[in-house]
Structures are given as C-alpha cells and as structure tokens.
Design brief:
Elements lengths: L11 H27 L3 H14 L4 H13 L3 H14 L4 H13 L3 H14 L4 H25 L3 H12 L6 H13 L3 H14 L4 H13 L3 H14 L4 H25 L3 H11 L7 H17 L3 H14 L4 H13 L3 H14 L3 H17 L4 H5 L7 H15 L9 H21 L2 H8 L15 H9 L11 H13 L1
Length: 495
C-alpha cells in the first residue's frame, strides 16, 4: 500500500490560527509602541511599530502610527511614505490623510497638502484641524507667489520675509530655505546665508542648491577659487543647475580679468590696466566686494594717470559698495589731498583712524588737519604769485612786480571802489613779503603755525616796504613819474 505525505500547511484551520496569532502578536507590539510614544521615547516606539508592520504589513493603522512617530523624529519624507501606504490600504483612514497632508505641508508641497486636507473634510466635514491646515496651505501658496514676483523685481528682502512666513508652516522645506539663503547672499548677509545652507547640507550633502548657495557666499566674499569648487560640486550633483553654471562662468571670468588688470598695473601699463578693470566691472554687478576692490584698483590707476576727480568718484563707489573698505577711504583721502580738498581728506582720515588706530593713520590725519588749517589762512605764495619752493630772489622779484601793480598812486584816477580794492591788495603784498622774506617767519608759516599766536611781530607798513625797494623819502610817485613807473613795471614783467 502506497504512502501519502500529509501537508499540514494546507489545513485551513491551522492557517486561521496562525494568522490570528500573528495579529495578536502584532497588536501587542503596537500597544508597546503606544506606551513608548506616550513616554515620548519615539525611537523605541518606532521599533515596535515596525515589528507590528513586519507581522501584519497590510494594517493601515500600524503605518499611521509609525508615520506619527517619524513626524516626531522630524523624518518627514519617511513619514510621508508611511502615510501614503496607510491610505492606500484604507482610503477612509482619516488620520492617514491628515498625516500625509501635514507631511506635504512641512515639506513645502502646499498643493498636495491641500488635496489631502480636502479629503479629510470629505470624511469628516466638521474637522476644524483640516480647516486650519487648509488655511496654512493657502498662505504658503500666496507667499510662494509673492516671493516669485519679488525675486523677479530683485526685492530680496521681501523674498526673505515671504520665506520666513512660509517656513512657519513648512519648516522642513529645503526649497524655501535655499531660496531664503540665496536672497540673504544677494543682500550681503553672508553668515546667515552660509548658516542656512550648511544646515541643509548636514541633512543632505548632495543638495545641489545648497552647494550653489555656499559657493555664492564665497564668491561674493571675493573667495573666488573656493567658490568655483562649490559651483563645480553643485553641477556634479545637478548637471542642469543653470544658476551654478552661470555663477561658475562669471567667477572664472572675473578672476581672469582682475588678474590681467593687476598684471598690467605692475608693468606700468596704466591705460591698459584702467580698461581691464573697467571691463571686469561689467561682468557681475551683484558681486559687491570684488567690484569694490575693482573700483579702488581703478582709482589707483586713475590717480597715476592724473584723473583725480575720476579716482575720487571710483573710491566713493567702492565705499558705497563696502562701507568697511579702509583702502578705499585712504585712496580717496590722498586724492582729496592732491586736489587740495582738505576738509574732505580730514573726514576720510578721521573715519580710518576711528576704525584702525595705528600710528601711520594718526600721522596721516594730523597732516591733513595741518593742511586744512594752512588752507584757511592767507596764501602768501599765491598773493605774490610764486611757487612754495621759490627762492629769496624770486620772492623779491615777485614783490616788486605785485607792489607796482597794486600801488595806490597808480590807481588814483580809478573809482573809490577800485582804489579800495587795490589798496587792500597792496597791503596783502606787503604782508606776504614781510613773512616770506623773513626765514624764521617763513619757516613757522610753512609749518602751519599762526604767526600772531606765536607772539611774532606782524606789524608792518606797506609803504615803508615799498620805499625800501624804490628809495626816496616820499617813496615812488606814480603821479610824478608815471612814464618811469610804467617803464619800470614793464621791465619787471619782462624779467
């Protein structure tokens, strides 16, 4: 008689018993998970919910519970997957739809979140939570719309504001964070932008957008080589990242053009250097720090080419871009000194000295203050029409010429107003000669000292000085010797 093998697995009664045991065991794991969830030990709760799912993978509530636990652990993408699996298993599972919507919202997908909350309202029309979350989703959509418009208008502050508001409900949205970080970089708030981008990269080291923002911050801080490395890395992660491609191209072009300008300057080709710096300034108007340096470099070249007013303007542009740029203040101050705009020079040197109290900056400030003080006195050299390095003979010759030109007798036939003006000039000529012909007074005057404050004798008679040159007890008379005077004046001018 043949033997028949008995297959125990085909026994329906035994299968039923096994399923019931698995369900009971799974329920036990779920209950344990609930206990840990209440205790806020979400890691252990997650482990027990996972065990329940392993035993009964078609139970929607287990996925729903694990999704809730993952949300508490801020693992929103995994929570979203569990929520979606829960509602696939049971489309009437209201909590599953709610959790899916919350995950979408936290991750910044307001449209998908809206559909989930609308489904909750179908299942439970009086759900106040669904109504509130729908309002949150609508707000996010509105902030996104406004941010897009503001970005096109280059109103980056408004974009940051919109993203901050959106992130109140979508705190896990990397897209919103990256946009905020990019705008912070464009506003020059580099540490804040770097912080946001770094937070994203800690969670996702392959995020091309965050890598791009890190590079952008370095690029705008004039660390171009490091910036290029980040742009290249961003393009590896996201080959179609157009912003990273453009920034990388601009960074390389800017560096190359700036280095060409520097090379031309060192070789003494100032016109070429000026043109190269000008070309570099057209590459990227958004690169504030690099452009500030380019303006200052062009100002340096401009001063070499004696384009002092243009150099001052370039320094002002550099300072407008970077108010902390000490080199631009120093360059502008020197240009002010060269153009005898001493008050402006003092103002710039004061700014520099307040920032960096070095001995060199103190001396520059003192020198500018001295020149300012000197500029407010009578310029005796200008009165005589001589250079500051004029010799004693040149000073005497200049006095003779100016004294004859302005002597009151020469203008006796003029109007009272003209006579008064010429008499004033005649006295100034005598005063100038009194100071510049006396070595001690001249030295004090050249040093910027007030001669009257130094108790130096400044009493003089312009007519007596005139007599010393032209002799005679009555001085040189233009009325009696007008022809002789005119001839003498002509000789003086020719000589």
């Amino acid at each position: 008689m043949a033997t028949v093998d008995y297959d125990s697995s085909a026994d329906p009664e035994m299968d039923l018993t096994s399923d019931e045991e698995l369900e009971r065991e799974a329920e036990g794991f779920k209950e344990q998970g609930n206990v840990y969830y209440v205790k806020k030990d979400y890691a252990e709760a997650f482990n027990f919910y996972t065990k329940a799912i392993d035993l009964c993978p078609k139970n929607a509530s287990y996925y729903g519970n694990r999704a809730a636990t993952l949300m508490m652990l801020s693992r929103y993408r995994e929570a979203l997957e569990d929520s979606q699996q829960a509602v696939r298993l049971d489309d009437t599972f209201m909590k599953g739809h709610m959790r899916e919507g919350k995950c979408h919202l936290l991750l910044g997908n307001a449209m998908a979140a809206t559909r989930c909350f609308q489904k909750v309202q179908e299942l439970e029309p009086e759900s106040s939570q669904a109504q509130q979350e729908l309002k949150n989703a609508e707000s996010i959509l509105e902030f996104e719309r406004l941010a897009e418009i503001s970005f096109e208008k280059r109103d980056f502050r408004m974009v940051v504001f919109c993203m901050d508001r959106a992130l109140e409900s979508a705190s896990a949205c990397h897209r919103f964070k990256v946009l905020k970080a990019e705008c912070l970089a464009l506003l020059g708030r580099y540490p804040e932008a770097q912080s946001v981008a770094s937070d994203i990269l800690r969670m996702d080291s392959t995020n091309g957008d965050a890598l791009y923002v890190r590079g952008l911050c370095l690029y705008y801080e004039d660390c171009i080589d490091k910036a290029v490395q980040f742009f290249v890395q961003a393009l590896r992660m996201a080959p179609d990242h157009e912003k990273a491609r453009l920034a990388c191209r601009n960074a390389k072009a800017l560096k190359a053009k700036k280095e060409e300008g520097n090379k031309a300057f060192k070789e003494g080709s100032f016109e070429e250097a000026y043109d190269l710096y000008s070309e570099a300034l057209t590459i990227d108007p958004n690169n504030i720090k690099t452009n500030a340096k380019l303006y200052c470099n062009r100002a340096t070249v401009g001063s070499k080419l004696n384009k002092l007013e243009q150099a001052i303007e370039d320094c002002t542009k550099a300072i407008k871009l970077d108010e902390t740029y000490i080199k631009a203040y120093l360059r502008r101050a020197q240009c002010y000194m060269d153009t005898e705009q001493y008050e402006e020079a003092v103002r710039d040197y004061e700014k520099v000295y307040q920032t960096e109290k070095t001995k060199e900056h103190k001396n520059l400030l003192k020198n500018a203050q001295l020149e300012l003080k000197k500029s407010k006195r009578k310029d005796y050299y200008k009165v005589l029409g001589v250079d500051k390095n004029a010799t004693e003979d040149e000073i005497k010759k200049a006095y003779r010429k100016r004294a004859l030109m302005h002597h009151p007798d020469r203008h006796s036939g003029a109007s009272a107003e003209v006579q008064k003006e010429e008499e004033k000039k005649f006295k100034e000529v005598g005063e100038a000669f009194t100071v510049l012909s006396d070595p001690k007074k001249k030295s004090r005057y050249d040093s910027g000292h007030d001669l009257e404050d130094d108790d130096m004798n400044m009493d003089f008679d312009a007519n007596n000085i005139f007599k010393a040159f032209f002799g005679g007890p009555g001085g040189f008379s233009f009325e009696a010797n007008s022809c002789k005077a005119d001839l003498y004046l002509l000789l003086i001018i020719i000589c």
